[in-house]
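Subject: design request, 147 residues
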C-alpha cells in the first residue's frame, strides 16, 4: 500500500467524520440537546484482507465516537456509531456478483442487509426512545461480526 493510498482513505473515512462531527457537535452542544450518529463499518472491528487503511480508519471512528460522547454527554448530546455489514447497495453489488455465496456463508442470518435495516437503527438512535444511549457502537450485520 502506498502512502497516498493510506492517506486518501484516512482523510475521507476518519478525518471526514471528525470534520463533520465537530461542526454538528458544536451546534448540539450550544443548544444542549441532540443526537449524532457516525457511520463506520464492521471492518473497524474485524478487519479485512487488503484493507488495512479502511479498517484503521473505521476503528478510528469508533474511538472518536466514544471520546466525543464522553466530552459532551453532560450537555445533553448523544453520539453513537452504526456499523453496517454487507448491505445491499450499488457498492456491494460487485461483491455479491464475485463472491456472494462465500460472503453469505459467513453471515449467520444468511442474507445481505437492506438499507432499511440500517435506517431503522439510525431512526431509533435519534429518537427520544434512545435518550439514555451514548458512546455505543451498534452493528447491523446479520451476525457477521460474531460468527
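Subject: RE: design request

Done. Sequence follows.
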Amino acid at each position: 500500500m502506498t502512502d497516498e493510498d493510506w492517506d486518501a482513505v484516512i482523510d475521507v473515512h476518519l478525518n471526514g467524520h471528525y470534520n463533520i462531527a465537530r461542526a454538528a457537535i458544536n451546534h448540539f452542544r450550544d443548544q444542549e440537546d441532540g443526537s449524532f450518529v457516525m457511520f463506520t463499518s464492521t471492518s473497524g472491528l474485524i478487519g479485512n484482507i487488503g484493507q488495512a487503511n479502511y479498517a484503521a480508519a473505521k476503528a478510528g471512528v469508533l474511538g472518536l465516537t466514544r471520546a466525543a460522547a464522553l466530552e459532551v454527554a453532560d450537555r445533553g448530546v448523544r453520539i453513537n456509531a452504526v456499523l453496517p455489514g454487507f448491505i445491499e447497495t450499488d457498492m456491494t453489488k460487485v461483491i455479491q456478483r464475485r463472491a456472494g455465496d462465500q460472503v453469505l456463508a459467513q453471515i449467520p442470518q444468511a442474507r445481505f442487509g437492506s438499507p432499511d435495516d440500517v435506517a431503522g437503527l439510525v431512526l431509533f438512535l435519534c429518537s427520544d426512545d434512545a435518550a439514555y444511549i451514548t458512546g455505543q457502537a451498534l452493528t447491523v450485520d446479520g451476525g457477521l461480526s460474531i460468527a
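The mean pLDDT is 93.
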